[in-house]
Amino acid sequence: MRTQVAIIGAGPSGLLLGALLSKAGIDNVIVEQRSADYVLGRIRAGVLEQVAVDLLDEVGIGARMHAEGLPHDGFDLCFDDRRHRIDLHGLTGKRVMVYGQTEVTRDLMDARRASGRPTVYEAADVGVHGFEGKAPGVRYVKDGARHEIQCDFIAGCDGFHGVCRASVPQDKLALHEKVYPFGWLGLLADVPPVSHELIYVNHPRGFALCSQRSRTRSRYYVQCALDDQVEHWSDDAFWAELKRRLPADTAAQLTTGPSIEKSIAPLRSFVAEPMRFGRLFLAGDAAHIVPPTGAKGLNLAATDVGYLSQSLVDYYQGHEQGIATYSERCLRRIWRAERFSWWMTSLMHRFPDNGSFDHKMQSAELDYLVNSPAAMTALAENYVGLPL
Ligand code: FAD
Ligand code: DHB
Q1: Residues labelled as active-site residues
Q2: Which DSSP string do the residues of 290-357 spell out, in sequence order?
Q3: Which atom of ligand 1 is nearest to the CA of 286?
């Protein structure tokens, strides 16, 4: 098989890149190691910035998002058992869209199927080669048969554990990493959200987040130990722990119910530099991870592929400047989002090694934040997303 761009990974970054390239008439094939159902079953992000909303509109799949997504004008920060509203719209003129990654992925998959462009699911032993020369290729095994795709470029959209970053000679990569000493235990349930907006909670027992997917589906998280196991958490234990971390009047309004999904995610900050190696580009979680606190991961993935698709369109029109500066342009935005996610994570969580001084610093910063319009604006402008 021959194509212009071989995309590895059918997560949000791979599918969105495929849609953007297809719209520009650039031939592409997506190769994914899992099944479509498996990809759809991963419950992850919930908050989209305006830039991500705009990209989904650009590829013509925004209709369901606008009909079913929930535009949010603010969120609550909660500490010392009190909730303080951050008026995102009042402070920045912008808002965010609450629309699950599962739904974004489903919309992109439906559009891809309708376009007739090839997606190979359940591809085994995926390998990439030749990207440091002029003739890159992708090999994989499907139903026991070996296949090869020859292409002009490879887009590594295969997430943190993917094969693309791992195929780059390690002496050409600079890795920057911080692993946090806790995880998030998440629970999804068909119960109405406790509040119409999100609540981020700093509590002596640990961080908690009240999020949502719709007016009838809630997503909640509690900070847990790194070695905690999801099997050790019954639904009842989860709800009891969440209630302990909420102010009494909020806890009293919480509707509980059976979980649809429960999982533990470790928290990590990670950046691999650069993001281009000859004819291989990395995008999304393949190149960088943010701890989820600032809701930036999916949004960064979307902006990476926005830059990448434009760079490739320019290339096929005879201009190489876009692909030459792809890495540098992405990384500037990525490092600012890394900083914000690290800061918000540090502010809102209990760190096992922290003492009373560190707790006082968190309290003083939270107090400053909700009483200073300047500090609140800095939080709000990062949360809604910095300009491209
Ligand atoms: P992925 O979604 O990881 O997709 C990569 C794909 O590549 C996968 O389908 C994988 O199966 C495939 N793949 C891997 N290896 C191979 C291989 N060798 N060959 C072929 N295919 C391969 N972000 C936000 O913006 N807002 C939020 O509110 C938010 N909340 C989050 C909450 C949690 C609990 C977590 C865990 C993450 C959250 N994120 C959030 C982050 C967001 O989910 C990720 O940043 C996003 O999924 C990145 O998309 P991606 O397509 O780059 O990578
Ligand atoms: C969700 C996840 C986040 O990390 C966040 O900051 C907000 C919402 C969510 O899964 O709904």
Answers
A1: 72, 200, 292, 296, 383
A2: --GGGS-HHHHHHHHHHHHHHHHHHHHTT--HHHHHHHHHHHHHHHHHHHHHHHHHHHHS--TT--HH
A3: 52
Residue with tokens 């600079």: 174
Q: How many CB atoms lie within 10 A of CB 24?
A: 14
Sign of CA dihedral 24, 29, 31, 34: positive
Tokens representing 110? 């439906």
pLDDT in tens, 64-91: 999 999 999 999 999 999 999 999 999 9
Distance set, CA 135 to CA 129, 130, 386 (Å): 9, 6, 37
CA distance 147 to 126: 10
Looking at ligand 2, which residue's alpha carbon is closest to its atom 5? 295
Whether 219 is in the pocket of ligand 2, judged by its Cβ within 6 Å, is yes
pTM of the model: 0.97
User: Which residue's CA is minimally distant from atom 3 of ligand 2?
Assistant: 295
Give the atom of ligand 1 at the shortest distance from the alpha carbon of 304.
52
- The whole-angstrom separation of Cα 264 and Cα 185 is 4
Q: Which tens digits make up the pLDDT trace of 22-62? A: 999 999 999 999 999 999 988 888 999 999 999 999 999 99
